[in-house]
Design a protein that fits this description.
This protein is mainly alpha-helical and 188 residues long. The chain has a single domain, classed as Pectate Lyase C-like, CATH 2.160.20. The protein has five helices and two strands; from the N terminus they run H-H-E-H-E-H-H. Strands 1-2 form a two-stranded parallel sheet. The radius of gyration is 17 Å and the shape is globular. The chain starts with a helix and ends in a 5-residue tail after the last helix.
């Protein structure tokens, strides 16, 4: 359940059409993981919003402008992101399990280490998105090799068997990537 304080603050930003209110609060409270679970923010302007670490499970963000937003480490599990603008957004380590990303614009987004398992990506635009170590390994729905090839570092992501074949990657690609990742961890 979303915390009332977080919902009240977000609603104030939307009423005043000023995301800077939210962003200032986030600067003052960097340790807080705002809980906006289930919130309906469809077709709102959250461009440049500081939503890093936010819990947006089951939220309705359909058609929302999240361009250049910081969603690093955000929990977007089961979120409706259909036709959402995520252009140039920081989506590093974000959890998109079971999310609907149909027709979303992910152009130039940073998806490094993001989890897209179980998500629906029908018609999503991945042009120049960074897919470094992005997890597309399990039950990703309606993604095709041509979408993936439009992204940067697409050959450094994890894929299910069907996508591995469609992209012309070797069957042991994921194992090789995991090995390389573990060898590059600092302090090990």
């Amino acid at each position: 359940m979303a915390q009332d304080e977080h919902l009240k603050l977000m609603n104030e930003c939307l009423e005043k059409q000023d995301i800077n209110i939210w962003n200032r609060w986030r600067e003052e409270h960097p340790e807080v993981k705002p809980d906006l679970s289930g919130i309906d923010l469809k077709r709102t302007n959250l461009s440049h919003a500081a939503l890093q670490g936010a819990i947006l499970r089951g939220a309705n963000l359909r058609g929302t402008d999240l361009s250049s937003a910081n969603l690093r480490g955000a929990d977007l599990n089961g979120t409706n992101l259909r036709r959402t603008n995520l252009c140039a957004a920081n989506l590093t380590e974000a959890d998109f399990r079971e999310a609907n990303l149909s027709e979303a614009n992910l152009s130039k987004a940073n998806l490094k280490d993001a989890n897209l398992c179980g998500s629906l990506i029908l018609g999503a635009l991945l042009l120049e998105a960074d897919l470094t170590e992005t997890n597309l390994e399990e039950n990703v729905k309606e993604v095709v090799p041509s979408q993936v090839r439009a992204a940067k570092n697409w050959d450094a992501a994890f894929y299910d068997r069907r996508l591995l074949e469609g992209l012309g990657l070797p069957h042991d690609h994921n194992d090789r990537l995991r090995k390389r990742k573990s060898e590059n961890k600092p302090g090990e």
